């Protein structure tokens, strides 16, 4: 972590101007005011002169200047440090006419001593960003394999994000300009300028090592102490001073016996402990709040050729999402938005977030909130798919500098449990046909591995997101990008039949967004109905470059496979139902896959869905839409990720198996009931048992063990018509209940629709929200709503026969307030039903 006391974002008169590559400072008339430093696209969007929804624009071909005119902050400091935390990508910096810096890496943070160059008044900072396209046009050695996701292969020489540069799945909005803070900090000889904390858990004892560095040539501090609060007591250690490269460094290690450990929220409490640094200089005492740290261990379990995570010695089923920056053009967001999204993920049962190598490093607030909320982080370095030129001295030096910028920030983060070298580099080399010797580049297996192991001894290092086995994308070894269920259109049973061990990404579909997002799409193309075959829709449907299909086709395949309805015919005759079944198909795929992966005896130890949110409005891969509103598939993910979980697997001639999971740190005791129904409402068989499930355990039972006689519930033997079409399990415990409603489909048979007795009643608006109660006489499949300007806290769920659900509807953020009008339906119901509103 970096000590930020006295640091302030550089305030002054910021301005932006277009220019010529390598040219002189633009004329005064060219400058336009800028509220704060931000990327070019974000600045133009704020000014209303550019939009993601407007004509495409290649900022990689443009040159831009930034200017800040400012006075030195008040105070008696004689020396100052200027910080530039992120410059994308080819940047030159001047202060008061003097050159300060040439930067070629957007992932490096720069700190510069500027005390003797800083005036009391009238300072001018200039930053020029030259076109990356010109640099990419220079002749460079060819790669040994190609990355089909990229139009420009020579991006491999430049340390910049791939977002905006991947036609087919990210909008053409490359980040150019300052994308992290520009700041000033006074040099204080008495206080450290940077502080590195390294917490460790050793046999139940917490050990916190601290190193403090000073900008000044000599430290004025005469004493430093570190304190930590635990269990109502304050523990402390005095630090010792040494010289490192001629500069003073203080360090020490504080120990706490029987410390309360940090756990991912699904398995315990993310306990943290407040830490402070206290100092004395020339008779004056001072204190710094260093936040809070958590103590935990993290290990990779690679037994039997797989990958699993052990936290504090316990195996953890890791499940979550691949992260996407919350703002496509800024690459960061306000703290409140981070908290809203991360809290939503926590509440959904997610316990692991992957920051992939195609994205960008996240802000400190992201990691602080993950620490607080008990969310683990799989942090990849920003390398993806390409043959990186590790033997190029300049490139290697940039990699080393980047690691020096990034790794220390993660050392004190309990949430960061995995640092991964890259995204799919090994996979891409193997898929492209490169020789096996190139599959595991030394850059990731030696150079970066050594740096991470040395600087972050308390995390797992994994060389690539797809790694292990006879080939890097082999599902039943190591880790992989798993698209058996998904892009490769395998049956849902492949989720388990493949022997998947750990999916760093999976379950990608062109996820149909909520109706409000569809309305925004229509507004962009008012003269054309925006449906799944319209040009605007198809332009934003994710695809692999060169493929003869897109992820709309993948979704439609599962509509036909699961529901027996022709998606092309639906698209022409009933487009609204086509979209509803598309939402339902993705939700069913997620539920079926997770039920298999979380089943007793499963070899799977982790899965992360691809990906968090859409980069722009449309049917993207996001489980949230572009404004972070949940899609139906996100609710499906939340239902199958809870620490208490019930699921069914179809084990062929062995029949259905019911699985119960308890990940909590205490045993759970309650009543487990099982019911089978015909035609969605007539009981066929019922059973009930008391169940006590030990902490962090999973059990499975053949449901025929529960019944008095043989019932071919899964219709495996087919000695006549199916005896049942719905099976329901419910586990009632003191803290709540887990429930699973499973519809038994006959392969190839069309989805049957009937009068299921669906009804809903809404109460009055109370504190801006409306409570709705939904009931159904027969089992209701994929219950969904049509409501303008309001969103439910759950949708796309199944209701058991005679079941009831209470939901909370809140206004959609940013939508105009509209009167409450809603209908409710299910994909097996004949017609939508109006939601009645009580007085």
List keywords for this structure.
globular, 47 strands, 33% strand, 8-stranded parallel β-sheet, 6-stranded antiparallel β-sheet, TIM Barrel, Jelly Rolls, 839 residues, Immunoglobulin-like, 6 domains, alpha+beta, single chain
Share in helix:
10-25%
Largest sheet: 8 strands, parallel
Give the total of domains.
Answer: 6
Rg, Å, rounded: 28 Å
Mean pLDDT: 93
CATH superfamily of the largest domain: Galactose-binding domain-like
Principal-axis shape equals globular
Count the DSSP helices: 14
What is the second-level CATH architecture of the largest domain?
Sandwich
Structural commentary:
With 839 residues, the chain is of the alpha+beta class. It has six domains: 8-186, Jelly Rolls (Sandwich); 194-293, Immunoglobulins (Immunoglobulin-like), CATH 2.60.40; 317-474, TIM Barrel (Alpha-Beta Barrel); 475-605 and 612-628, no CATH class; 644-743, Immunoglobulin-like (Sandwich), CATH 2.60.40; 759-837, Sandwich (Immunoglobulin-like). It is built from 14 helices and 47 strands. A hairpin with a 2-residue loop joins β15 and β16. The longest helix has 23 residues, at 575-597. The chain is globular.
Brief characterization of the structure:
The chain is 17% helix and 33% strand. With 839 residues, it is of the alpha+beta class.
Describe the protein's topology:
Layout: E1 8-9, E2 13-19, E3 32-34, H1 40-46, E4 63-70, E5 80-84, E6 87-88, E7 90-95, E8 98-103, E9 110-113, E10 123-130, H2 132-136, E11 177-178, E12 182-186, E13 194-202, E14 205-213, E15 223-230, E16 233-238, E17 240-244, E18 247-256, E19 273-281, E20 284-293, E21 298-301, E22 308-311, E23 314-316, E24 318-322, H3 335-347, E25 352-355, H4 364-373, E26 376-380, H5 393-410, E27 416-420, H6 425-431, H7 442-455, E28 460-462, E29 480-482, H8 494-497, E30 502-506, H9 515-524, H10 535-539, H11 551-563, H12 567-573, H13 575-597, E31 606-609, H14 632-640, E32 644-650, E33 656-662, E34 668-678, E35 682-693, E36 697-702, E37 726-733, E38 736-743, E39 759-766, E40 769-775, E41 780-787, E42 790-792, E43 797-799, E44 804-811, E45 822-825, E46 833-834, E47 836-837
Parallel strand pairs: 24-25, 24-31, 25-26, 26-27, 27-28, 29-30, 30-31, 39-47
Antiparallel strand pairs: 1-12, 2-3, 2-4, 4-10, 5-9, 5-12, 6-11, 7-8, 7-10, 13-14, 14-18, 15-16, 15-19, 17-18, 19-20, 21-22, 22-23, 32-33, 33-36, 34-35, 34-37, 37-38, 39-40, 40-44, 41-43, 41-45, 42-44, 45-46
């Amino acid at each position: 972590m970096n000590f930020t006391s006295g640091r302030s974002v550089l305030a002054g008169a910021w301005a932006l101007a277009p220019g010529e590559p390598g040219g002189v400072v633009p004329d005064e008339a060219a400058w336009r005011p800028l509220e704060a430093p931000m990327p070019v696209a974000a600045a133009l969007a704020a000014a209303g002169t550019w939009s993601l929804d407007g004509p495409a624009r290649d900022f990689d071909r443009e040159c831009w200047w930034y200017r800040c005119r400012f006075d030195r902050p008040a105070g008696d400091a004689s020396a100052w440090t200027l910080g530039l935390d992120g410059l994308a990508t080819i940047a030159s910096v001047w202060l008061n006419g003097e050159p300060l810096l040439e930067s070629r890496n957007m992932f490096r943070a720069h700190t510069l001593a500027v005390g003797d160059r800083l005036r009391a008044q009238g300072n001018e900072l200039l930053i020029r960003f030259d076109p990356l396209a010109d640099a990419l046009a220079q002749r460079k050695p060819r790669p040994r394999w190609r990355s089909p996701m990229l139009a420009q292969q020579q991006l491999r020489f430049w340390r910049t994000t791939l977002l905006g540069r991947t036609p087919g799945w990210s909008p053409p909005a490359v980040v150019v300009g300052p994308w992290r803070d520009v700041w000033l900090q006074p040099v204080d000889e008495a206080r450290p300028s940077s502080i590195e904390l390294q917490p460790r858990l050793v046999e139940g004892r917490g050990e916190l090592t601290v190193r403090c560095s000073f900008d000044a040539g000599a430290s004025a501090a005469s004493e430093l102490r570190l304190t930590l609060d635990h269990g109502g007591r304050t523990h402390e250690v005095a630090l010792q001073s040494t010289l490192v490269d001629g500069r003073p460094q203080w360090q020490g290690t504080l120990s706490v016996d029987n410390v309360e450990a940090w756990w991912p929220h699904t398995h315990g409490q993310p306990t943290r402990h407040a830490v402070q640094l206290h100092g004395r200089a020339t008779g004056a005492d001072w204190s710094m709040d260093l936040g809070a740290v958590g103590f935990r261990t993290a290990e990779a379990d690679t037994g039997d050729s797989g990958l699993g995570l052990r936290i504090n010695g316990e195996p953890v089923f890791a499940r979550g999402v691949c992260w996407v920056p919350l703002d496509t053009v800024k690459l960061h967001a306000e703290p409140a938005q981070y908290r809203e999204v991360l809290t939503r993920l926590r509440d959904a049962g997610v316990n692991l977030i992957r920051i992939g190598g195609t994205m960008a490093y996240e802000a400190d607030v992201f990691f602080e909130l993950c620490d607080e909320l008990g969310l683990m982080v799989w942090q990849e370095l920003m390398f993806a798919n390409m043959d990186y030129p590790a033997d190029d001295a300049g490139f290697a030096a940039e990699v080393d500098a980047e690691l020096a910028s990034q790794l220390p920030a993660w050392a004190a983060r309990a949430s960061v449990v995995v640092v991964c070298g890259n995204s799919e580099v090994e996979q891409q080399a193997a898929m492209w046909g490169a020789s096996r010797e190139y599959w595991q580049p030394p850059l990731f297996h030696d150079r970066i591995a050594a740096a991470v192991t040395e600087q972050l001894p308390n995390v797992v290092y994994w060389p690539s997101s797809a790694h292990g086995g006879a080939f890097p994308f082999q599902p039943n070894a190591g880790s992989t990008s798993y698209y058996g269920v998904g892009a490769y259109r395998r049956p849902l049973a492949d989720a388990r039949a493949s022997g998947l061990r750990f999916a760093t990404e999976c379950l990608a579909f062109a996820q149909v967004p909520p109706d409000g997002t569809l309305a925004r799409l229509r507004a962009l193309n008012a003269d054309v109905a925006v449906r799944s075959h319209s040009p605007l829709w198809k332009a934003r449907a994710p695809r692999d470059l060169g493929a003869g299909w897109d992820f709309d086709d993948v979704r439609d395949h599962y509509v036909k496979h699961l529901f027996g309805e022709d998606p092309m015919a639906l698209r022409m005759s009933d487009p609204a139902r086509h979209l509803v079944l598309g939402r339902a198909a993705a939700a069913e795929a997620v539920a079926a896959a997770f039920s298999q992966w979380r089943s007793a005896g499963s070899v799977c130890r982790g899965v992360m869905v691809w990906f968090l949110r859409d980069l722009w409005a449309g049917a993207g891969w996001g489980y949230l839409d572009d404004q972070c509103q949940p899609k139906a598939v996100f609710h499906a993910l939340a239902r199958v990720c809870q620490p208490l979980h019930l699921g069914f697997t179809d084990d062929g001639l062995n029949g259905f198996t019911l699985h119960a999971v308890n990940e909590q740190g205490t045993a759970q005791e309650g009543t487990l009931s099982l019911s089978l129904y015909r035609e969605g409402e007539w009981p066929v068989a019922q059973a009930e048992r008391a169940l006590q499930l030990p902490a962090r355990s999973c059990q499975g039972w053949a449901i025929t063990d529960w019944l008095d006689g043989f019932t071919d519930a899964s219709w495996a033997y087919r000695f006549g018509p199916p005896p049942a079409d719905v099976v329901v399990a419910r586990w009632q415990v003191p803290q709540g209940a887990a429930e699973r409603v499973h519809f038994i489909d006959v392969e190839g048979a069309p989805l049957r629709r009937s009068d299921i007795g669906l009804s809903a009643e809404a109460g009055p608006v109370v504190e801006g929200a409306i409570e709705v109660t939904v009931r159904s006489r027969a089992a209701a499949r994929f219950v969904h709503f049509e409501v303008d300007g309001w969103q439910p806290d759950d949708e796309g769920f199944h209701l058991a026969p005679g079941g009831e659900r209470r939901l909370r509807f809140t206004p959609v953020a940013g939508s105009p307030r509209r009167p409450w009008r809603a209908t409710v339906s299910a994909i097996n119901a004949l017609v939508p039903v109006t939601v009645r509103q009580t007085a």
